[in-house]
Every structure is written in structure tokens, then in C-alpha cells.
Amino acid sequence: MSKNKVKPLVTAVFASTLFLSGCGLFGKEVQKKVDPPKQVTETKANPTKETTGQNEEVEGTVSTELYLINKDGLVVPQTLTLPKTTSVAKQALEHLVANGPVTDMLPNDFRAVLPEGTTISVNIKDGLAVVDFSKEFKNYQPEDERKILESITWTLTQFDTVKKVKLQMNGHELNEMPVNGTPISENLSRATGINLDTADVMDITNTKPVTVYYIGGEEGSYYYVPVTKRVSTSEKNNVVAVVNELVKGPNSKSNLASDFMADVELLETPKIEDGKVTLNFNKSIYGSFEEKIVSEHLLNTLVLSLTEQKGIESVAVTVDGKAELVNDKGEKVSEPVTRPEKVNTGSF
Q1: H or E segment and range at residue 167
Q2: For position 169, what pLDDT does the model report?
Q3: Which structural domain, as residue segments, surrounds residue 210?
Q4: pLDDT confidence of residue 115
Q5: Could you tell me what percentage of the chain is helix, strand and coil, using 3-state DSSP and rounding each to the nearest 5?
Q6: C-alpha to C-alpha distance for 337 and 102, rounded to whole angstroms
Q7: What distance in Å separates the CA atoms of residue 297 and residue 260, rounded to the nearest whole number?
Q8: Count of helices and strands (H, E) across the chain
Q9: What pLDDT does residue 58 have?
Q10: pTM of the model
């Protein structure tokens, strides 16, 4: 999917489930569905619950991001409704196992990440999740090795109590993956990246990673895909680097798209204050719309991408210094936009 291919679909597609307002990417009704119940949040903060390895169910359900593999081999978050439990991290990983409890819940064109029959225990303490897999963990295809690392890391770090991840198999620490020998850093984190794209990088030593979100899927089932790209270390401002990569768009050989036109530019240096970044764009941010309307695809990928940056919690957008924006649902975007609790909660 090219950048231009997605353009005509914007107004019709996005209106169904994603509503952009001052409180976040989702409207209030959807927000209630994805906000973790207080009971679950409190459970996550208690590492001894995870240490037991028990998966005791309690009444109700909880929305959880599972990083699954799509038909193009990309690792993509999909938010599924799971039974509420005292071991949310362990349950999330168990739902990454092929032919396991996730089987009947898998979205179309997605598959589980971990080998069939893999059993798991999780011990969380001081921000570190130590995951111990059974011997079945090594029964995966070599081409899935990096994807498995990314899926485990990003699935676990959605929880507030997990900042880093350490892997074990049968109680022994893994310093490299068991099939293709991919080295495993001492403590995995989101800084490790996801869906790495180095296609245009000549000298990786003078680059740094930034993660941006592009649009994947097909009409009726679009979703956001995080991609880690390498940008020059000469670009000191990570916010500018993220915006530039969104404008540049995804690898032309991928099936991803960006809703940014090639002539979109920042008119001044982004301002960051109290967790809010303010961006002032030229009028090209309006894209191909005849009226002064900003697409929700563009706004949502912008917010998802920038809130991956440390210290950024919300995004305010102006055009030629004016904040009177309207999205393609005819709604005013007058307040800074925050990141949703969960990503890709359904088709749109």
C-alpha cells in the first residue's frame, strides 16, 4: 500500500471506531472499554502475584495488547479481551502460544508467535520481568527469531510494572536465541526496537533508532504498525526526526502506508512543556482535502509515534500558528491529544 493509495479511504474508514478528541485517540465510550480496571492495575503492581506462576481467574475481563505476526511477517499489536486474572503478564504471554488459548480469538491474517506447547512462568520485580520458557520454546522457525524477541518484549512492557525483560529456558538464562543464535541483550526493552527497517541506511554506526507508526491492513481492517527506523545522530531533536520519518513514509516495498504528504513541513522547532509537545505545520498537513481538514489517520499515527518518545504524553497541532483544526468527522480538535490505553482495538 502506498501513501497515495490510502488517501481516498480516510474519510470513510476511520469514522467507525476511532474518535479523536481532547481526552485521547478514542472517544469516551471506547475509552471505557480499554481502560484497565482498577483491580487489574493494582494486581500488576504486586510482583508476588506474578511470581507464583498461578493464573487464577477473577470475575470480569481486561483488554490486553498481544503482539502477533501478520501475513506480511510484521509484529503488530492487537488488543483482545481476556479473562481478568491475578497474573496478567503470564496470561498475555500464554496468549502468544500457537494453538493455545488465543486460537479462536486471532484476527484474520494474524498468527501466534510462540511455539505450540510452550509453557511459561513470569517473575516481576523492580521493573524487570524474568520469563522462563519450557523446552518447547526452541521449536520455532529461524525467520521468526527476531519477531519472537520483539513480541515478548513489547507485549510485556505494556504493563506499568515492566520496563525490561530477561529470558530463560528451563531455568537457564538465555544469552542468545536457541535456533539462529540472535544475541539477547542483558535486559530487553522497547529500545531494542520492533519491525526494524534499515533499508536506506548506509552506515548504521552514525544512526539512532526512532519508532514510528504506519498504517497496515486492508479496507475494513486497517491497523497501526510500529516500525523502528534508523536516523542520523546529527538530528538532535527526536521529535523532528519522528515527524520527518512519518513524512518520508514506510519502505516502498512494504504494504504499509503513511497519510502524510511529501511536502508537509514543520514551520518551527517543536515546543515541549510539561509532557506536551506543540507542533506547528505548514498547510500541506491538510493533504488532499479541499477544505481545511486534517485526517484522523495522520493525527493518530503522529500521536502514537511521538508518545513513544520519553517524556511526551500529549500532542498539540497547529497550522500556520492556528489551533482551529477539524478532523475528517467534522469534530474540532482543540485540545492536546493523548495516547490511548490500548492500540488496535478493532477494525476501522
Answers
A1: strand 164-169
A2: 98
A3: 3-31+194-338
A4: 98
A5: 25, 30, 45
A6: 32
A7: 9
A8: 9, 15
A9: 64
A10: 0.84
Give the side-chain half-sphere CA count within 13 A for 286. Answer: 12
Q: Nearest to residue 335, comparing CAs of 348, 324, 347?
A: 324
Structural contact between residues 139 and 115, judged by C-beta atoms closer than 8 angstroms: yes
Nearest to 243 by CA among 282, 289, 194, 201: 282
Number of domains observed in the structure of the chain: 2
- The number of C-alpha atoms within 13 Å of 161 and in the hemisphere containing its C-beta is 21
Question: What confidence score (pLDDT) does residue 324 get?
Answer: 78
C-alpha dihedral (228, 229, 233, 234), degrees to nearest 10: -140
Amino acid letter, residue 13: V
The span from the CA of 212 to the CA of 209, in Å, is: 10
Question: Is 185 in the same domain as 230?
Answer: no
**Which SS3 state, helix, strand or coil, does residue 293 take?**
coil
Phi/psi at 118 (5° precision): -65, 130
173: how many CB neighbours lie within 10 A of its CB?
12
93: left (phi over 0), alpha (psi -120 to 50) or beta: alpha
Please tell me whether residues 311 and 329 are part of one structural domain. yes
Count how many Cα atoms sit within 13 Å of the Cα of residue 3 in the half-sphere of its side chain: 17
The whole-number pLDDT of residue 56 equals 60
Helix, strand, or coil here: 160?
A: coil
**Closest by alpha carbon to 41, among 80, 93, 94, 86?**
86
Rounded average pLDDT per 10-residue block, the chain, 348 residues: 43 36 38 34 39 60 97 97 95 98 96 98 98 98 97 97 97 97 93 91 87 93 95 94 97 94 96 97 85 88 96 95 84 87 78
Residue whose entry in the numeric block shows the C-alpha cell 480499554: 34
User: Within a 10 A sphere around the Cβ of 226, how many other Cβ atoms?
Assistant: 23
d(CA 93, CA 162): 13
Q: Label residue 37 left, alpha or beta by phi (over 0 means left) and psi (-120 to 50 means alpha).
A: beta
d(CA 157, CA 153): 6
Assess if residue 346 is contained within a domain: no
- How many beta carbons lie within 10 A of that of residue 231, not counting itself? 19
Residue 333, pLDDT score = 82
Is 179 found in the same domain as 163? yes
Q: Given the C-alpha cell 504528504, which residue does it identify?
A: 261
